[in-house]
Amino acid sequence: MKITNLGTRDYASFYVACELYKQMSQQCHSKLGLATGGTMIEVYKFLVDLLKKNKLDVSQIETFNLDEYVGLDANHGQSYHTYMNNVLFKRYPHFNLSLLHVPNGNAVDLDEETKRYEYLINQQGPVDIQILGIGENGHIGFNEPGTDVNSATHIVNLTESTINANSRYFENEAEVPKQAISMGLSTILKAQRIILLAFGEKKREAIEKLAENEVNSEVPATILHAHPNVEIYVDDDAAPRLK
Ligand code: F6R
Questions:
Q1: 228 CA → ligand 1 middle, Å
Q2: Which one-letter DSSP state was computed for residue 136?
Q3: SS3 category, 101
Q4: What GO cellular component term, any one, is given (predicted)?
Q5: Which residues participate in catalysis according to the annotation?
Q6: pLDDT tens-digit profile, the chain (243 residues)
Q7: How far is the CA of 28 from the centre of ligand 1 (A)?
Q8: Any ligand 1 atom below 6 A from CB of 39
Q9: What is the pLDDT of residue 24?
Q10: Ligand 1 contact via 102 beta carbon (within 6 Å)
Q11: Quick one: residue 95, left, alpha or beta (phi over 0 = left, psi -120 to 50 = alpha)?
């Protein structure tokens, strides 16, 4: 598994933004698998710059987000719908809204919603590039330690570690939703190309475990060892220490 230290968050984010831009400009029907979270903020910032400078036609680009909190309205300030609108879709308002997919965490029938989302990805996919962050506990999407490696889109009970890490975006920890809808590990692996990014000291241990371990469900990101086309980019602080 190739882990490349690109030095800084800015360099790595710009590189990934260029890769997304290249995919979109070379193939106008591209399907992108998108992630949220702090890691991706600069990627979207650089991507918006590139889209604006080059006035790229994105009207046929289709996107699939990895996950969404359960119980938050799409308009809630911390929903991943709102995040995507703020960082990308409203900043470059030329996407076709009907092609931008985020799971509905407020669906009346959540099981039905997981099935609908998985079916949609299977129908419209495969995703050309899936971008991923990584949790301090090794999660990808919201696939927490112990998740079945064959999992499809499903409802997840968030772990204390994830609730605590994500509480920085909420008024307090009690407000963080306890569940999410997430693409499963098998859903993620269907993408043609996967790019994982990790920045900062807090991610180093997860990256080291990913580098050292074969597929094992205690570190969900290790499932990426089973995919033929994965790239991992880190900054100096998240780079694995040499043994
Ligand atoms: C977000 C997602 C999560 C995050 C991960 C890292 O859509 O699927 O796996 O990528 O929790 O979050 P940040 O980037 O906030 O450290």
A1: 22
A2: T
A3: strand
A4: cytoplasm
A5: 67, 137, 139, 144
A6: 889 999 999 999 999 999 999 999 999 999 999 999 999 999 999 999 999 999 999 999 999 999 999 999 999 999 999 999 999 999 999 999 999 999 999 999 999 999 999 999 999 999 999 999 999 999 999 999 999 999 999 999 999 988 998 999 999 999 999 999 999 999 999 999 999 999 999 999 999 999 988 999 999 999 999 999 999 999 999 999 876
A7: 27
A8: yes
A9: 98
A10: no
A11: beta
Asked if residue 139 has its Cβ within 6 Å of ligand 1, the reply is yes
What's residue 243's pLDDT? 65
Residue owning the nearest CA to atom 3 of ligand 1: 141
d(CA 205, CA 79): 28
Minimal-distance CA residue to ligand 1 atom 10: 133
Backbone angles phi, psi at 139, to 5 degrees: -75, 150
Instruction: Kindly give the distance from the C-alpha atom of residue 166 to the centroid of ligand 1, in angstroms, as a whole number.
Output: 9
Which 3 state secondary structure label does DSSP give 114?
helix
Ligand 1 neighbourhood includes 79 CB (under 6 angstroms): no
Pick the CATH number of 2-238 from 1.10.230.10, 3.40.50.1360, 3.40.50.720, 3.30.200.100: 3.40.50.1360
CA of 120 from ligand 1 middle (Å) equals 22
Residue 133 beta carbon below 6 angstroms from any ligand 1 atom: yes
Gap between the Cα atoms of 32 and 186, Å rounded: 16
**To which residue do tokens 């900062």 refer?**
200
